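Final report, closing paragraph on structural work. Over the funding period we assembled a curated collection of sequence-structure pairs, and we close with a single example.
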Amino acid sequence: MREVTGNLSGLKPSELKALERIYRRRVAPHELVSAELATFMCGLSRELARQVGVLITRRGDIEHVVVAMPRASCCPRWGACAPATDASAGCA
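Its predicted structure, as stored:
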């Protein structure tokens, strides 16, 4: 299974498992995010008191799960990013 990235310090094993389970979810290709996934992530984010983010492929697969502190954001270095354009300028 893929690893959750970001600030994981202080999380309980059950919280880490909940984050890892996000990788099992799928989103319909025509949706940006499903209502079920958004609801789950909001609840988990509130429970952890941290930001939780995902990168979803065009096919609807969860590619990355990221955890950040409440007032900080973190974006891992996406290894598979295309060369920077206006749309992907944040990739390094």
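Helices lie at 13-21, 35-48. The longest strand covers residues 62-68. We thank the funder for supporting this effort.
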